[in-house]
Amino acid sequence: xxxxFKNLDEQIKILKTRGLIIDDEEKTKKILxxxxxxxxxxxxxxxxxNDKQFVIGATFKELYSCFLFDRYLRNIIFKYLVIIENxxxxxxxxxxxxxxxxxxxxxxxxxxxxxxxxxxxxVRDIIDKMKRQIRVNGSQHNAxxxxxxxxxxxxLWVLVKVLSFGIxxxxxxxxxxxxxxxxxxxxxxxxxxxxxxxxxxxxxxxLCAHEDILYSxxxxxxxSTTKYHLELNIPKIEEEYINGKNDLFALIIILKIMLTExxxxxxxxxxxxxxxxxxxxxxxxxxxxVLKKMGFIEDYMKIIEI
Length: 306
Hints:
Layout: H1 8-17, H2 25-35, H3 37-40, H4 60-100, H5 104-107, H6 120-137, H7 142-151, H8 156-159, H9 165-173, H10 177-184, H11 191-209, H12 227-231, E1 236-237, E2 240-241, H13 248-258, H14 261-281, H15 287-294
Antiparallel strand pairs: 1-2
Helix pairs in contact: 1-2, 4-11, 4-14, 9-11, 10-11
């Protein structure tokens, strides 16, 4: 069925027909105009019953508050993902430059990477992507432009500034095993665990950057079981953990491993503040419904002390 344009009055009518309480129609119209009816309605599932109607007592204020909660949550998560991104770029460039040199022809030498037959094509593709970044960004960014004009090359610790998180994540997959282990050891995890974390971090980073729905997002990849699953007594179904495997709480576990203790504590306090702020607004549903979608356990703050 074709979706036709609806003006603000028609949007209000649809919401009210589905049982949503709107106390101030003029204020609601301004919000819908500014924020987009379609984007706000992305959070309606929290307030719908089995008949796809809004639960009794549900208000536009609650719906909009869920929308804003996700925005604030996204801003918090994104801030700390950028910290991790910068950390990773620094660690990667340090380890590889130390071992292979600081000129492109040195650190991008094909022999520096895995020689496994099934990864040869992937190695060439990723090296080509990095060389393309040098060509495209070399004359567009102050740091890369300075090195090119002054020295004729761009060292890896400068190049990483213009590499996407995705390329850095891909780079790890083509490293030699000893280099993978060296980098993963910084975070006291195995190279297999670390390699599993990177695409999840990249996925959430892109989601946050494009302002997609965060709180209920699930990744295709699952993280391996950690001590946090065990010590938090996360419930299981048929020996599989319900929470913290491919939901937002799984990302929280990764961030616990990769952020400093101080950074993680501050992040969790910021998240806890937003959760409690939303809790104070919700009337027709419990905050537990939101936490369930996030994959958060009831005592989620306990992870700080583990």
